[in-house]
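writing this on my phone so excuse typos. first protein, seq and then structure
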Amino acid sequence: MSIILSSKNSDLNDVKQSYNHLWNAFEILLFVLVGTRVKLNLVFSFEGLKIFILILIGPSFRTIDVILSVMKNKYNLKEIIFFCCIISS
């Protein structure tokens, strides 16, 4: 999040730090409120299982794509795993 209020770097850094502190406080509140809105009967139903499988399939295809694009180069196994972890996240 960037807002330009002044041409002085010190003022901009103060504003940036203020927003960072606000985000740190409200981030926890945001995830708590989202967690309270989740319907547990949906999570443990067949539809919830389908959503969970869909969430797993997306990163799996992305990881396979990274492996296929990196295999053309002469990287060892550790480097390929590193690329999969960094690029897929």
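second protein below, same order as before
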Amino acid sequence: MGRTWQQKRPARFEYADGRIPGEILEEPFQYDMMVDEALRGVVRRALKQVAQHGLPGNHHFYITFKTRGEGVSIPPYLLEKYADEMTIVLQFQFWDLEIEEEFFSVALSFNDVRERLVIPLAAITGFADPSVKFGLQFQTLDDNELNETELLDASDDETEDPMPEGDDDGAAMGQVVSLDNFRKKK
């Protein structure tokens, strides 16, 4: 009598960047990826502290993430409104903050409707705590796929003013907004 089931092959293990264990790389030390992973650990640890103890004093977080990043879960109407990136603020009104190894989830209010967002740490492109003038910017997988020519062209553009003066609500369009505009003038 023959077998009626088929044994499944074990899934092939891969690192998050798609490498296979034992694979020989051109550059054995990918320091940029190591640093990126370590800095995402800073975000994880800060969120974990908030989940356990709340936000002390004037601390609050701005977290920007790719809305179409792998594993991101947000309501469809938010995905439609923020097709590429979205910035959330963790300050006064957030609930059920949970932190896992690779993602966090939080409930926020949008137009008086509480919604749960699931955000992988790998989808985060920016993290800031303006109360202590601390901020981090991250590359996502899409950013890492830029070729060397594009990176060189982009470095030439960095000398230009990234945000023109004036009252521009760039946050709604998924643009970087200078926090200096919101700080108290001395």
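The two ends are 86 Å apart (CA to CA). thats all i got for now
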